[in-house]
Each structure stands twice: as C-alpha cells, then as structure tokens.
Design goal:
Layout lengths: L8 E4 H16 L3 E5 L5 E4 L1 H18 L4 E9 L2 E9 L5 H9 L10 H7 L3 E6 L5 E11 L24 H5 L2
Parallel strand pairs: 2-4
Antiparallel strand pairs: 1-3, 3-7, 4-5, 5-7, 6-7
C-alpha cells in the first residue's frame, strides 16, 4: 500500500529545501533556486513524502512549461511555515495545476500530493499573479523545535552505513 506513513520528524528547513532542490535537479536536469527566510527554522515533516511531492509537481510544471524557472522558498508563518514551489515565465492551465495536486503521483498509484499534505496536518493552495505568468504552490507545514529533532534524553541521532557489508573487489584483497 502506497499510503504507508513514515513518522514526522524534525528537520532543518534549509536542509529540506536543499534536498528537494537536488532531487528536482536530478530528475529534471534543471536547477531550482532556494530561499530560506529563517535559517533556524525547523519543520516536522515526512521528508521522503514531501520531497517526492515537490519533485512530482516540479516535473509536471516543467513538462507543461519548459521555459519556466523554479524556486523553493521557506518562511515562518506564526506557529507554522510556508513552503512555496514557485515558477515564473510561463502560464500553466488552472485545471492542470489542480489535477496535479489531487491526482496520483505515480501511474497506477494511490498517493497524491494532497495526501502528503494531509499527512502533515497542513494545507496546500495555489497562488497566481493576475497575468498568470508567475505562480506558486504554497504548503502550510508544522514547525518543530530544534531540540525535538533528536531523541529525548540528549542522545545522538543514529546513522546507518547501508554499504557496510557490501562486498567489493577491494574488500576481497584483505581476505
């Protein structure tokens, strides 16, 4: 089931934007500029789901408007944060924009961008300039405190080396 839910965890907002920009660049070959209003801003997010949603929307935008320039912006909004996926330079149909946020992100899949937003207890809406050549998807996301990003009791975060037991040609030389 694609609706399996990962736990929401604390993450620095600037790190989230950097990771999302890298994923968008890797999938589209296009850079997305990033702007963070408050470098100390921490979000409570499902990182995998949110980055997947941003990359999905970015790929659809670039398919519909290849000349568009993309940017990711993050700013505090009271006890929440606004994360914007913004674009300029091309008009995209309103029906397409609405379909992308409510339709499945993968062919035959069940998970939509709206599902990811609901998982965060957040909201998603579309903002457009009157001429239609600049617009953004705005995600309203929960904040986290930096201290809550790590386990209680002051322990360090755990890191996993998934390649630890992977055999390579160099490792056999030590046998």
């Amino acid at each position: 089931d694609q609706r399996v839910r990962w736990p929401l965890q604390g993450m620095r907002g600037s790190d989230l934007l950097a990771a999302a920009a890298r994923r968008i660049g890797a999938e589209s070959g296009r850079e997305a500029a990033t702007a963070v209003e408050d470098e100390g801003l921490w979000l409570r997010v499902d990182t995998l789901g949110l980055i997947q949603a941003l990359a999905f929307l970015a790929s659809r935008l670039l398919e519909a408007a290849p000349a568009a320039t993309l940017s990711l912006r993050l700013a505090p909004a009271g006890n929440r944060a606004h994360l914007d996926l913004a674009w300029q330079g091309a008009e995209v149909g309103l029906e397409d924009l609405r379909e992308w946020q409510s339709g499945p992100m993968e062919a035959g899949g069940a998970l939509s961008v709206r599902d990811v937003v609901e998982r965060h207890g957040g909201e998603l809406w579309l903002e457009r300039d009157p001429d239609g050549r600049a617009a953004s998807y705005r995600f309203l996301l929960p904040l986290a405190r930096a201290e809550d990003a790590f386990e209680r009791g002051g322990s360090r975060p755990e890191y996993y080396d998934f390649d630890l037991f992977a055999a390579s040609a160099d490792s056999h030389g030590l046998d």
